[in-house]
Amino acid sequence: MAPPTRARWGLLIPAAVLALVAAACGSSSTTSSGTSGGGPVKIGYFGALTGNNSPQLGININNGVKLAVNQYNAKGGGPKVTLVEYDSQGDPAQAPQLAQKVISDHTVAVVGPAFSGESKVADPIFQQGQVVNVTPSATNPTLAEHGWTYWHRIVGNDSQQGPAAATYISSKLNLKRVAVIDDNSEYGKGIADIVASSLPTSGATVPVRDHIDPKATDYSATVNGVNAGNVNAVFYGGYYQNAGPLLKQLRDAGNKATFVSDDGTKDDGFVAGAGAAAANGAYVTCPCVPTPSTPSGQAFTTAYQSAYNVPPGTYSTQGYDAANFILAAIKAGNTSGKSINSYLASNSFNGVTGTIKFASNGQITPPEIEAYQVQNGTITPVGVIS
Amino acid sequence: MKGPQTGIVLIGVLLLCALAAMGASATTAFLLERVAYRPLRRRTTSRLAALISAIGASFFIQEVFALRYGRDILPFPRIMNKTVLFHIGSGEVRTDKVLVVLAAIVMMILLDRFVGTSRLGRGIRATAQDPEMAVLMGVNIDRVIVLTFILGGLMAGVAALLFGTFFEVTQYNIGFLLGIKAFTAAVLGGIGNLRGALIGGFALGLIESYGASIFGAQWKDVIAFVVLVLVLLVRPTGLLGEQLARSRI
């Protein structure tokens, strides 16, 4: 494009001013009304669907949400609902703009944001725009401390998961020298810090504390540090994308310490990345209890399997429950963010994962943490640890 | 063929893989030169245009692979056993590490001899020094440039095989960070100087490793780039600075 001449600038500047004014009016009018107008009620999924920040977790959630909305519309009996997918790529830098788009789309409620980093920047915008948000998976504890009234979380957080993992390592597995590694993300560093500070209270020491660069492939500096620390367990805070290669490089360097990680690692991508031989015996903890074998749990698993040809993944059930709670509010005649929010605050919901009831800070009560172990290449539940 | 191989079979498998990787990567380089560089070279002399076109082409290829193979990391089969040969202090010397270092040195010597002594090598050096003069002296620049791309592709293929054998993972954009690191190594060693690039690469690797174990792994890139800036402040042409830089301005 040729650089604008003086005459072109003359046209451009008023046009730009007009656009800015229009944008400002658009967002302010949404904030004051907060309803979806005449058409179908819009709810959204907000989180990673593509990109390299472990999108599989987001796809699992979105599939659960999509299933809930399709079932709701097929059944009828309430206002029609459309689902809008907001693909943040799990990137905190993209989240604010996308959150603004949620508001300008008149989307009244979202399931998400899926990750903690993006939640931290998107949630204040949702709060201001009166968009109900229910995260099925962002587990950083500080998210509950901002006084966001439109924010909800239907899983336990890391200040519950972290100590449970620490106790599990030191008391149940009886491992007393633990290296704690993380990926420097809002979520990974958050839970690793909690585990590192909880381990000494349950009688273990943390001789190695290191951070990896999630964009890098070569973790040899960290691996050398872990080997030099002579530990018998390694806790990794982060996502499956890096956990797999990290574990593989540890095993290749002759390290035999028990590997424990968090819910971000609970994905088959972890086993694929590490290779089944290296992954076998590794543990992950997760506030996600396995889909129960109750009638509603089995019905969900069957419906999910037939819709997507794969069994429900990590957080699919939580995404489904979060969407269904919002849909129950809409079915009861609440079509604005504000009225859905007060429905969620005053009601409880019988979901697949059990009874969901939010405390005044938006956190589910009481949470359950489950431990899983990789056995024969499959991540298998081994019991509730909280 | 399944699982790690040994002995003569392993060498055969590695050579076969190397040939396949070199072929694929050289073909890509050839096509890239045709699609993304040559048309620009014909129309404009701006180096910036070529750079932007290169970035665009790289995004295009990355996204094609992301759409076809997904964005998650993909496992890479284990080709060779990773046996510990001996220890130096607490560091262990493993077969795959030895393979990487030896292969890198052999490739470097071959490339250095080729560029230094062959007819094409002379053409490459002439074109790098002064393209217009090279044309006047009878160098077919188009031919030299496309062959340079193919040569680069062949080297990249070997690097990819070594990387895959060592880390055993791959991803649609796994080469991006490597590309930046390679460029950094070349700048550190002195752009246009092959031996400098080798030294720059080793220096960068050592700085990163020592930096990471002294300050923590999250400081790795910070330390590497701080050292790069400091070196360039003292020696703007890199460690083995080449007069070539003058003609590139």
Which features characterize this protein?
heterodimer; A: 386 residues; alpha/beta; Rossmann fold; five-stranded parallel β-sheet; B: 249 residues; mainly alpha; two-stranded antiparallel sheet; two-stranded antiparallel ribbon; 4 strands; 5% strand; disordered C terminus
Molecular structure report:
The complex is a heterodimer of chains A (386) and B (249). Chain A has 2 domains: 176 residues, Response regulator (Rossmann fold), CATH 3.40.50.2300; 143 residues, Response regulator (Rossmann fold). Chain A is globular and about 65 Å long. Chain A starts with 5 loop residues before the first helix and ends with a strand. Chain A is built from 13 helices and 14 strands. Chain A has 386 residues and is of the alpha/beta class. In chain A, the strands form 3 sheets. Chain A has a 7-stranded mixed beta sheet with strand order 7-6-8-9-10-13-14, sandwiched between helices. Chain B is mainly alpha-helical. Chain B has 2 domains: 172 residues, no CATH class; 75 residues. Chain B is built from 10 helices and 4 strands, in the order ααβββααααβαααα. In chain B, the strands form 2 sheets. In chain B, strands 1-4 form a two-stranded antiparallel sheet. The radius of gyration of chain B is 20 Å and the shape is globular. The relative contact order of chain B is 0.10. At the A-B interface, α7, α8 and α9 of A face β1, β3 and α8 of B.
Secondary-structure map:
The complex is a heterodimer of chains A (386) and B (249).
Chain A (H helix, E strand, L loop, with lengths): L5 H28 L7 E7 L7 H21 L5 E7 L7 H10 L4 E3 L4 H14 L2 E4 L15 E3 L4 H15 L4 E6 L3 H13 L6 E7 L8 H9 L4 E5 L2 H13 L5 E4 L6 H7 L1 H4 L3 E4 L8 H14 L7 H16 L5 H10 L2 E3 L2 E3 L13 E6 L2 E7 L2
Parallel strand pairs in A: 1-2, 1-3, 3-4, 4-5, 6-7, 6-8, 8-9, 9-10
Antiparallel strand pairs in A: 10-13, 11-12, 13-14
Helix pairs in contact in A: 2-12, 3-4, 5-6, 8-9, 12-13
Chain B lengths: L6 H37 L3 H23 L4 E2 L8 E5 L2 E4 H23 L1 H11 L1 H6 L4 H27 L1 E2 L3 H16 L4 H22 L4 H15 L9 H4 L2
Antiparallel strand pairs in B: 1-4, 2-3
